[in-house]
């Protein structure tokens, strides 16, 4: 082998040391890398499969523990011993003594609400009578008792029942855990149940196995309880075969490594579906890495040979020194340019970059100060003293009239309103919390104005509920709709709040059927919002301008507000949030 290489070398004329160095470094550098790549690929291919299987099993076991811990906590509440307030309420309700049962109902509501607050993901806690009457953490209402009972199926315990996922009375997708409660002093038993939001199962299975890989949960019959694709919830799993044995399966042309575990507490299977393509892609990574390393070594060899020139060493060392100082936040550095070669151009680009960084930092400081100022002004503008005083006067009036039920709802709504307004000092909040904040505000305002208007909140794209937006974006617009649109109108009012998503944009549309706005005024407002028209009175259209400017600062110029109106018919304010421009 050596003699063969020597003959080839003798047959090739090499006139320069640079060429000899390049050839020598190529041979010395490439051979070890190729050998290492071949050996590592074979070793790593087996290790990757073992690691994926072990990791998947570890994840499903962990999910099983977390799921059982959560369900056990719920079962512990449902399996409580005899409760005096519940027993008294059942007895008085069955005797149709609704007047005396109210004080027990209040205590039950309070207990159920406390349980719901302490356990994230509990949508409702309820007692259901045999005729379908129900008292829950939301109040009293009726359900189809036969349909509800048919949905229940027993797990390993005969006392606890589960349901398939379904849409509950409040249009939330839930799984219900229930058991029979046998009061000591009542004539008939009742069902005590807890509705668990499917988002809890989504959180429990929120582990990253890869872009195509996922986790799902199925019951002992193979029916899917949770799946990342909501359309498949409730279907019979394709891979069910007297359970879910670990194996390699094919679904829609894709191969998956199936790993599962069974929960004795819930009677559910937790299943990991690891994409075989992604496992193989990780093996391909080693092959690509070897190729890239070879190319890099080749480039380094050439660069090292060229670097022998002393004429390049000094400018490069100087540039290295200044770059290091810049990385240590010394942005006052500047390269003295001499000559017009590549190093000189690099120095010019470096100086230009430093100047640009300084400008951007100054601009960022100014924008952050303005953003904080606008947010504080927004908070001061939204939480107005007269709104607080009027609401408190209304609560006092309800208490004096002994209307404790409505007063309680008002206090709860007011507390939630301020809690969500403050949001623990955070600048960004979940859209679901912003929606809750608006609901509390509308509830209080509707209460104050004698239900002169109604409202509808329609979120067409539920996935946006877990996106973050700046707080207090919707409430100022809704307030304008009430005071400038509905209250001056001599008719039954209606406010519609819609949320939707198009590509990377999130839209909110606030529509009211109030007095509307004159066309010239609509044109003026839109020009102000676009920055085409300046105003002297800073209080004019303050709410609209505040929200509009905060959105543009946070998400860029394409985000903001637009107003449309038909006089004496309706007004619509569209909020556009372009997430691609978010800072």
TrEMBL record:
Membrane topology: Multi-pass membrane protein
Cross-referenced SMART domains: HAMP (SM00304)
GO cellular component: a single term: plasma membrane
Membrane-traversing stretches: 21-44, 289-308
Main location group: membrane
GO MF annotations in UniProt: phosphorelay sensor kinase activity
Coiled coil: none
Record keywords: Cell membrane, Kinase, Membrane, Phosphoprotein, Transferase, Transmembrane, Transmembrane helix
Domain (HAMP): residue spans on this chain: 310-362
InterPro entries (alphabetical): Bact_2-comp_sensor_kinase, dCache_1, HAMP_dom, HATPase_C_sf, HATPase_dom, Sig_transdc_His_kin_internal
Subcellular location: Cell membrane
Protein name: Two-component system, sensor histidine kinase YesM
Organism this protein belongs to: Halanaerobium congolense
């Amino acid at each position: 082998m050596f003699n063969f290489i020597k003959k080839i070398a003798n047959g090739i004329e090499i006139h320069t040391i640079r060429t000899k160095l390049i050839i020598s470094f190529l041979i010395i550098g490439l051979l070890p890398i190729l050998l290492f790549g071949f050996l590592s690929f074979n070793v790593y291919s087996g290790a990757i499969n073992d690691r994926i299987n072990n990791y998947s099993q570890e994840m499903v076991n962990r999910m099983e523990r977390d799921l059982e811990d959560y369900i056990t906590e719920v079962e512990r509440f449902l399996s409580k011993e005899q409760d005096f307030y519940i027993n008294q309420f059942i007895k008085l309700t069955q005797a149709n003594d609704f007047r005396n049962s109210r004080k027990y109902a209040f205590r039950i509501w309070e207990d159920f609400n406390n349980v719901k607050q302490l356990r994230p993901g509990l949508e409702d806690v309820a007692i259901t009578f045999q005729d379908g009457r129900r008292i829950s953490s939301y109040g009293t209402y009726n359900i189809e008792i036969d349909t509800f009972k048919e949905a229940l199926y027993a797990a390993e315990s005969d006392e606890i029942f589960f349901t398939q996922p379904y849409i509950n009375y409040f249009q939330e997708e839930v799984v219900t855990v229930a058991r029979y409660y046998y009061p000591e002093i009542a004539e008939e038993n009742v069902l005590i149940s807890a509705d668990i939001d499917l988002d809890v199962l989504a959180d429990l299975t929120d582990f990253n196995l890869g872009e195509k890989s996922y986790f799902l949960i199925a019951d002992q019959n193979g029916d899917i309880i949770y799946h990342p694709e909501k359309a498949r919830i409730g279907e019979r799993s394709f891979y069910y075969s007297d359970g879910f044995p670990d194996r390699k399966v094919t679904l829609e042309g894709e191969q998956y490594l199936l790993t599962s575990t069974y929960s004795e507490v819930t009677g559910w299977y937790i299943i990991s579906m690891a994409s075989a393509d992604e496992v193989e892609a990780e093996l391909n990574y080693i092959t690509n890495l070897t190729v890239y390393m070879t190319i890099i070594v080749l480039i380094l060899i050439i660069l090292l040979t060229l670097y022998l020139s002393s004429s390049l060493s000094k400018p490069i060392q100087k540039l290295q020194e200044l770059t290091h100082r810049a990385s240590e936040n010394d942005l006052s550095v500047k390269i003295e340019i001499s000559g017009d070669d590549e190093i000189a151009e690099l120095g010019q680009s470096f100086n230009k970059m430093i100047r640009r960084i300084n400008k951007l930092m100054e601009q960022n400081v100014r924008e952050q100060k303005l953003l904080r100022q606008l947010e504080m002004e927004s908070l001061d503008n939204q939480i107005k003293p007269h709104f607080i005083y009027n609401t408190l006067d209304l609560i006092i009036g309800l208490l004096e009239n002994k209307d404790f039920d409505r007063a309680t709802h008002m206090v709860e709504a007011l507390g939630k309103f301020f809690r969500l307004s403050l949001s623990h000092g955070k600048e960004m909040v979940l859209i679901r919390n912003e929606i809750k904040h608006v609901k509390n505000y509308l509830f209080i305002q509707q209460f104050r104005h004698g239900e002169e208007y109604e409202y509808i909140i329609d979120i067409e794209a539920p996935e946006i509920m877990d996106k973050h937006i700046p707080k207090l974006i919707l409430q100022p617009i809704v307030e304008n709709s009430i005071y400038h649109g509905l209250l001056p109108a001599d008719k039954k009012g209606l406010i519609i709040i819609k949320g939707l998503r198009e590509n990377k944009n999130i839209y909110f549309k606030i529509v009211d059927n109030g007095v509307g706005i004159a066309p010239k005024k609509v044109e003026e407002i839109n020009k102000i919002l676009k920055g085409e028209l300046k105003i002297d009175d800073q209080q004019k259209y303050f709410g609209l301008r505040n929200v509009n400017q905060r959105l543009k600062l946070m998400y860029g110029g394409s985000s903001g507000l637009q107003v449309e109106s038909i006089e004496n018919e309706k007004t619509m304010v569209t909020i556009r949030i372009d997430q691609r421009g978010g800072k």
